[in-house]
């Protein structure tokens, strides 16, 4: 796995983790974004939010895979 593939996978896993923790509504995601921005910067927080949106769209697929 290349460094780029590893980073993509890491971002997907982090986004899925937070979704599983219940960060699924605008208010909780905004709070999470503030926490991430304080520790890792605004760009990292925005990237996480964007990835969470992508993972939310495909959640049925990865949740199904998780059960297998």
TrEMBL record:
Pfam family, one: DUF7696
Protein name as catalogued: Regulatory protein RecX
Organism: Xanthomonas arboricola pv. corylina
């Amino acid at each position: 796995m290349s460094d780029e593939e590893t980073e993509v996978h890491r971002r997907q896993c982090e986004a899925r983790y937070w979704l599983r923790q219940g960060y699924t509504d605008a208010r909780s995601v905004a709070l999470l974004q503030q926490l991430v921005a304080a520790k890792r910067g605004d760009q990292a927080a925005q990237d996480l939010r964007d990835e969470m949106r992508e993972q939310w769209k495909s959640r049925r697929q990865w949740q199904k895979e998780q059960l297998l």
